[in-house]
Amino acid sequence: MMNIRLNPKFPMSTSIFNSKPNKTLPSKLKSTLSSENNPTDQSSSSSSSAGKIKRLVLSQEERTKINPYSDRDFYAYPRFVTHVDDGFISTLTDLYRERLRPEFEILDLMSSWVSHLPKEVKYKRVVGHGLNAEELSKNPQLDYFFVKDLNEDQKFEMEDSSFDAVLCTVSVQYLQQPEKVFAEVFRVLKPGGVFIVSFSNRMFYEKAVSAWRDGIEYSRVQLVKQYFQSVEGFTEAEVIKKTPGASASAEAAQGDNKLPFGWSLGLLGLAAPSSDPFYAVIAYRNFKPVYE
After folding, report:
1. Is the pTM of this model over 0.90?
2. In what ranges is there compositional bias, type Polar residues (predicted)?
């Protein structure tokens, strides 16, 4: 089969879709990579920039989900809704506006029909990943997207040092192999590239891993920091948080998602009628760059 590349830095052996209908590229592209040249093989000594996992953070029990069936089946139908409120989205967009530059090439992991990037900025390239092609095809900020279940296969079929930034928005709680995913993120980031992981207290309860479900907001922040620490080469994680002025009892009830009302909303991926807390954990590959 003929190899087709979207960009010299971006060969892919999974299905990739062009999300911009006015472009002349075919809607579905495939490229094949020989196993000896596949940069996602972390066991290969030639891939010196591959992320090295120093330790496992989660036990087998902590990786389990209430709903053990395929995530592909769970996300088979599109959900054209936002799972966090406007305050969260505004804070996230401001963070992206501050940390991401127009010349960046960006990978939006576990994305959907919105990426929350600032609308006034045109980035060099934005590639989306997710589980529902219909949702991703409606995302106006993606140049291309691909579909992959990261709980079944954690390898990104992309070359080393392909992206300036990787984003993961309100989805880290569903990763059953976060150490491997974070190692792959490290590999595809350019030196100095940034990984921004953002989340609130919302979740599809039955699809979140046990370590996340059983935790509280503080412990979830610490968990994401440990994911970064498990991979050699990430800088010390930075935490940004913005919590609403709610009573302690209300925050505790919503944060744990244990009241029947909050739990049922969690199953639907919807927000309860109060402000969502904002958390972002950020680290860089090797060093944090300084821009003039």
Report:
1. no
2. 13-22
